[in-house]
Amino acid sequence: MIKVQVPGTSANLGPGFDAFGLALSIYNTFSFEEKNDGKLTIRGVERKYQSDTNLVYRSMQKVFKKVGYRPRGLYIHTAVDIPISRGLGSSATCIVGGLFGANALIGSPLKADELFDIAVELEGHPDNVAPAIFGGLVVSMNDHGKNTYIKSLVHPCYEFYALVPDFPLSTSDARQVLPKKISFADATHNLPRATMTYLALTNGSADILKLCMKDRLHQPYRKKLIAHYDVITKKAREMGCLNTCISGAGPTILAINSVDNPSFQQDMVGYLAEKAPGWQIIPLAPDHTGVQILGG
Ligand code: HSE
């Protein structure tokens, strides 16, 4: 039995659309076993996901195909902690879990970088799968099929909170509301802000992080799909939180707080309970390790 733990991720981080991703301390865990029964058995998920269209299984097949291996039968168990369709990278965990699990089952013939390329092909963009694999704060890009990334550690002056609503939002719906073209002004608005966001998160410039996360490429369009977005983000700032952004394609809001503002969590719990009762708050830390094979 092989067990694979994959962290959830928060992509974009405001101005870093389709480029930045942060691995967080919330995990999906996948267990794999090759069986002699010639069957595919999937457990731990709703019945509708227990077939050969399952994303974990389809990802495993990519590895088996690449190395020319035919498993006799497969048992897959999924233990889910990451909220589904909430912008916390749950589908990326299925892809990464399936790829790394299949690879480990057959003696690890493929390297992490090769699995990264397959993961990007399956997910369509690298910003969730890169931190899910490598951990930390990652900037990644796909250049004509070649994927490249740089990983950095997040400065310990920050803590993170996922503010998660009770409604899902599919990434394709959230991409559909984006414009086909953007203005030169919007592009140049984002460039310095994205660079500063990445640097401030790594070097601890909390005062800069307060100013630099405003985005013009996706958040103005997507926030309309997220009920309570404006009031919750405004309230978070009033509670002394450094900044907020849409986590991935949403609808979760990621709040970045200073460790010197310890009242934030309690204040936000009280506010959500009263004003937006469908929302929950999950305290999170950066995960600097990424996917882990835990063994049997
Ligand atoms: N960068 C992607 C997006 C992340 O914002 O659409 C979603 O998976």
Explain this structure to me?
The chain is an alpha+beta fold and 296 residues long. The chain has two domains: 161 residues, Ribosomal Protein S5, domain 2; 127 residues, GHMP kinase, C-terminal domain (Alpha-Beta Plaits), CATH 3.30.70. The protein is 36% helix and 26% strand. Strands 1, 2, 3, 4, 5, 6 and 11 form a seven-stranded mixed beta sheet that branches. A hairpin with a 6-residue loop joins strand 8 and strand 9. The radius of gyration is 19 Å and the shape is globular. The model has no long low-confidence stretch (mean pLDDT 96). The structure holds L-homoserine. The site of L-homoserine has 11 residues, from helix 5.
Q: What attributes does this structure have?
A:
296 residues; alpha+beta; binds L-homoserine; seven-stranded mixed β-sheet; 10 helices; Alpha-Beta Plaits; 11 strands; single chain
